[in-house]
């Protein structure tokens, strides 16, 4: 048993927890917990899981993971990039394509605004042309009515017919007013998910122009995740195997914080849009991702 294993076991026993209790809290299989205490890391599913499992063990028994890693760094195996050859090719291929899409998304609001302005100008031109044609036709109608009135008697039936035509003439300006009242459709604004800052294994993103915040975390292999809000409340903590996912509604929260044990096998979706890691998930396997959210008014 290593010094690290002894330290963790003493902390667990001080908490009055058995290995079965610790398994229920951390969702880590009992045989892996025993392997951590005895320093048998070769029985783990992969080297990159050793640090993730030890960190979760520390949090469950009230120890500071970073302090433990620093104090017993000689007991913790180092994660090498060659452990993840398949993930490397898959992640790199993912990161080549989205640059074009992001440029198109940036230009989309400008294109929509330009089309809206052109449509408005064309509509105003058509209305003005109709008004000009109507005003040119009015004098001819007035002259015709005046010549007829000279030959009419007081009881002429033509007079009554003219009275019946007047309401029809009054309806024309009302129709013109209805044509002028054109409802303007607001331009469609697409949500913005942008990277704000990165430092070490920590990265921060900002979600704008969205009236909801739905977070989905899915696994393409096997990964451990802890999903919390900005106040530190945990909504989910455990291991996701291949094709498993967790979806949480953060609409009423100001931020979502994700602690990821294997970023190379972890995909993050915000309102259906895939988040692109600003830190390489192959070079930095364990990452802390924060997504800030301000609901659109």
From TrEMBL:
Which Gene3D superfamilies has this protein been placed in? Answer: lambda repressor-like DNA-binding domains (1.10.260.40)
Using the UniProt annotation, give all residue ranges assigned to the region (Disordered): 136-188
* SMART domains, per database record: HTH_XRE
Transmembrane helix as UniProt keyword:
yes
Single Gene Ontology MF annotation: DNA binding
* Basic and acidic residues composition-biased segments: 159-183
Which residue stretches does the UniProt record annotate as biased composition, category Polar residues?
Answer: 146-158
Pfam families the record matches: HTH_25, RodZ_C
Where does the HTH cro/C1-type domain lie?
A: 8-68
Keyword GTP-binding attributed: no
Concerning InterPro entries, the annotation shows: Bact_Cytoskel_RodZ (IPR050400), Cro/C1-type_HTH (IPR001387), Lambda_DNA-bd_dom_sf (IPR010982), RodZ-like_C (IPR025194)
Where exactly are the transmembrane stretches of this chain? 107-128
Q: Which UniProt keywords apply?
A: Membrane, Transmembrane, Transmembrane helix
Cross-referenced SUPFAM superfamilies: lambda repressor-like DNA-binding domains
Which PANTHER family does the record cross-reference, listed alphabetically? CYTOSKELETON PROTEIN RODZ, PTHR34475
Give the protein's recorded name: Helix-turn-helix domain-containing protein
Q: Which organism is it from?
A: Peribacillus cavernae
Q: Lineage of this protein's species?
A: Bacteria, Bacillati, Bacillota, Bacilli, Bacillales
């Amino acid at each position: 048993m290593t010094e690290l294993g002894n330290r963790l076991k003493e902390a667990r026993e001080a908490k009055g927890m058995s290995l079965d209790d610790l398994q229920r809290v951390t969702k880590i299989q009992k045989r892996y917990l025993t392997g951590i205490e005895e320093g048998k890391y070769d029985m783990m599913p992969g080297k990159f899981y050793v640090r993730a499992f030890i960190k979760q063990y520390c949090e469950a028994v009230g120890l500071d993971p970073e302090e433990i890693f620093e104090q017993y760094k000689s007991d913790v195996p180092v994660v090498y990039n060659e452990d993840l050859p398949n993930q490397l090719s898959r992640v790199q291929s993912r990161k080549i394509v989205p640059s074009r899409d992001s440029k198109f998304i940036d230009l989309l609001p400008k294109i929509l605004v330009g089309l809206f302005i052109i449509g408005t100008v064309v509509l105003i031109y058509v209305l003005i042309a109709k008004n000009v044609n109507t005003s040119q036709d009015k004098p001819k109608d007035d002259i015709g009515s005046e010549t007829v009135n000279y030959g009419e008697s007081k009881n002429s039936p033509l007079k009554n017919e003219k009275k019946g035509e007047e309401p029809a003439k009054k309806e024309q300006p009302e129709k013109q007013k209805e044509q002028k009242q054109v409802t303007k459709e607001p331009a469609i604004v697409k949500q913005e998910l942008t990277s704000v800052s990165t430092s070490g294994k920590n990265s921060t993103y900002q979600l704008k122009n969205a009236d909801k915040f739905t977070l989905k975390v899915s696994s393409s292999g096997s990964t451990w995740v802890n999903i919390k809000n900005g106040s530190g409340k945990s909504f989910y903590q455990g291991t996701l195997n291949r094709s498993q996912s967790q979806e949480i509604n953060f609409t009423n929260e100001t931020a979502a914080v994700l602690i990821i044990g294997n970023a190379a096998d972890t995909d993050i979706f915000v309102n259906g849009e895939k988040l692109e890691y600003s830190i390489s998930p192959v070079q930095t396997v364990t990452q802390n991702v924060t997504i800030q959210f301000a609901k659109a008014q």
